[in-house]
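Support request from a user on the community tier.

User writes: "When I paste my structure tokens into the form, the page sometimes reloads and wipes my input. The last time it worked, I copied everything first. Here is what I submitted, just in case something in the input itself triggers the reload:"
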């Protein structure tokens, strides 16, 4: 009688090794000059001597996942886009303080390692890192039989960036009279998928292969649309114009995330009439009977980033962003708070933000 083995317990080391071999070419595409060595070491190495050019470099760090959007990727058996969502969630939390993303690491937990699936996930992460201008310096793939089923996985990542101390963006720079410039999202990004899945699958009974004329594609294709990555656009904006603060519109919606970058005594007033949310938001509202305020507390409603700038910077900012292929528009202004009903910073912050009027179109 043979003894117990790791493989018999559900962990396939050889499959993990094969996954590493398949992902190497994609990781190599993210390489920056500061990166030392390749994947396979116990830690990724990044040459910090590049920071000597800064007077007072501040390191920024962020970590995140993509939530239940992974369930859509698994149901569709398409795994090469979810990594871009992961990168977007991490690096765009770095750039809002003005930091340039330098490198990322990832973590993938799965019930059973299927090398091609893991390589597909890492391919997406690598493509996202290229879009963000940062390196993928390492990661971990863990097989968790008994905790996750075969075919199930979750992903998480962490990133590090750098910003000059006197160039950090934030609420302390925001002034009354500043203007809010919205940058379009590519769709639902990676937030609110528990609500989306509940409405589309449980309430409406739709299938992922359902063709939806309003979307111009299937439901699955709409829901799996990768998160737009704004890092290089925002860095270019910061270089070309005066920017006081930037808000990444993630969980909690537009108002709650903008409130995080507004100082006490001021309020960001947004005009819904300046944009038309993509069809997916109106559709989920209509199918599920979801009130507009509930949608706005959960989803980005078509806005992925919002920059706060002085009025003199607005025209050059819009010209730059739209020239880079990023649809952008003035969506509101910063005013003195008058005690109106507003949304405070649910995730922190002392300011407030409010949405007014009806959406265009």
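"...and here is what came back when it finally went through:"
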């Amino acid at each position: 009688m043979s003894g117990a083995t790791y493989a018999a317990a559900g962990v396939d080391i050889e499959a993990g090794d094969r996954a590493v071999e398949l992902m190497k070419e994609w990781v190599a595409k993210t390489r920056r000059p500061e990166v030392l060595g390749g994947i396979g070491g116990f830690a990724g190495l990044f040459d910090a001597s590049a920071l000597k050019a800064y007077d007072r470099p501040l390191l920024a760090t962020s970590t995140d996942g993509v939530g239940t959007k992974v369930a859509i990727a698994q149901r569709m058996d398409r795994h090469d886009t979810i990594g871009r969502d992961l990168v977007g969630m991490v690096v765009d939390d770095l750039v809002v303080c003005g930091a340039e993303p330098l490198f990322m690491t990832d973590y993938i937990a799965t019930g059973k390692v299927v090398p091609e699936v893991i390589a597909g996930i890492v391919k997406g992460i690598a493509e996202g890192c290229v879009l963000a201008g940062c390196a993928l310096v390492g990661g971990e793939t863990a097989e968790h039989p008994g905790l996750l089923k075969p075919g199930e996985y979750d992903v998480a990542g962490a990133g590090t960036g750098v910003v000059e101390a006197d160039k950090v963006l934030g609420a302390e720079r925001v002034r009354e009279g500043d203007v809010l410039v919205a940058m379009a999202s590519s769709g639902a990004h990676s937030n609110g998928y528990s609500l989306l899945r509940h409405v589309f699958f449980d309430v409406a009974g739709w299938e992922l292969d359902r063709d939806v004329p309003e979307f111009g594609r299937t439901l699955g294709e709409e829901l799996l649309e990768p998160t737009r990555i704004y890092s290089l656009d925002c860095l270019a904006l910061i270089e070309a114009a005066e920017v006081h603060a930037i808000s990444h519109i993630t969980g909690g919606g537009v108002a709650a995330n903008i409130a995080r970058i507004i100082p006490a005594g001021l309020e960001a007033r947004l005009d819904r009439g300046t944009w038309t949310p993509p069809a997916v938001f109106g559709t989920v509202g209509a199918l599920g009977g979801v009130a507009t305020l509930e949608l706005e507390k959960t989803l980005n409603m078509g806005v992925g980033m919002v920059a706060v700038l002085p009025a003199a910077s607005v025209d050059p900012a819009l010209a730059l962003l739209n020239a880079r292929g990023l649809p952008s528009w003035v969506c509101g202004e910063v005013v003195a708070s008058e005690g109106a009903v507003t949304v405070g910073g649910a995730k922190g912050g002392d300011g407030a933000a409010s949405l007014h009027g009806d959406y265009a179109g």
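Agent notes: The reload is a front-end session timeout and is unrelated to the input. The mean pLDDT is 91. The chain has two domains: 13-47+55-164, 171-356. Escalated to web team.
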